Amino acid sequence: MNSKVSFSSVPRKPLVDAVVQQLQKKISSGDIAPGDKIPTEPELMEQFHVGRSTIREAVRVLVHAGLLEKKQGFGTYLKHVAAIQEPLDSRLRRAEIMEVYEVRQMMELEIARLAAQRRDENDLAAIKEHLDTRNQALEDKDIKTYIEADIRFHVAVSIASKNAVVIDLYKSLSVFVRETLATIFANPEGHNPQTEAHIQLYESIRDRNAEAAVASASRYLKGTLEELFGETS
Q1: Rounded to whole angstroms, how far apart are CA atoms 127 and 50?
Q2: Backbone torsion region of residue 73, taken as left when φ is above 0, otherwise alpha when ψ lies between -120 and 50, otherwise beta
Q3: For 47-54, which contacts have Cβ atoms below 8 Å and span 24 or more sequence positions?
C-alpha cells in the first residue's frame, strides 16, 4: 500500500461505520489501489484510535461488500476486480449526506425532464394524489404521513420517466432520503418543505414542459441542500 495514505481518528459515533466510511473513501479515490495491502490491524488501530474489534468488524463489512479479500498469513488486500456484493441501500447509509444529495440532484433533474416528456395520465393521477396527501399532511402537522407521501410523490415522478433502471435506483436512494427527512423533522420549526416548487414540478410534468420541470426540481433540491448544509454554490 502507498505509504502516504493515512487516516484520522474518528469521532464517538458508530465507530465501525466511521472506520468503514474512511476506508471506502480511500478506495473510491484511488488512494488504495487494486492489489494494495491495507495497513495491519495494529496500524489501523493506532491511526483511527479505536480498538481491535472495531477494526475487525469494519474490515469484515468491506470483505462482505466484495471490496477487500483476506489472504491467510499475508494480510488484507483490495481486490483487483471488486465484485461489489453489498446492497445499494446499505452502501448509501454509509455514505456522507452531501454525497447522497449530490447523486439525488443529478438523478432528479434528469428524472424531471424525462417525466415531463414521457408521462401518461396514470402517472399524472399518481403524482397528484401523493402531492395532495403530502400537502394536507403538512397542514395537519402529520409528519409521518408527510414524509411517506413526499417519498411516494418522488417515486411516482421517477416511474413517469419510464426508465426501469432509474426507477430501481431511485427507490434505493429513497430509503436514505426518508431517513434524512426524519432527521430534519426532529426539529421541524425552521423546515421549509418547498411546497410551491413541488406543485410547480407537478404542473410542469402535466404540461409536458421539460425545461420548467427541471427548474422546479432544481429549486427544491437547492432549498434542501441549503437547509442541510447552509449556503451552497
Answers
A1: 48
A2: left
A3: 47/6, 47/7, 47/8, 47/9, 48/7, 48/8, 48/9, 48/10, 48/18, 48/19, 48/22, 49/9, 49/10, 50/10, 50/15, 50/19, 54/15, 54/16, 54/19
pLDDT in tens, 155-169: 999 999 999 989 988
pLDDT in tens, 82-132: 555 556 666 666 667 777 788 888 999 999 999 999 999 999 999 999 999
User: Cα angle vertex 104, ends 98, 105, to 5°?
Assistant: 90
Question: What angle separates helix 143-160 from helix 121-140, to the nearest 10 degrees?
Answer: 160
Q: pTM for the full model?
A: 0.66
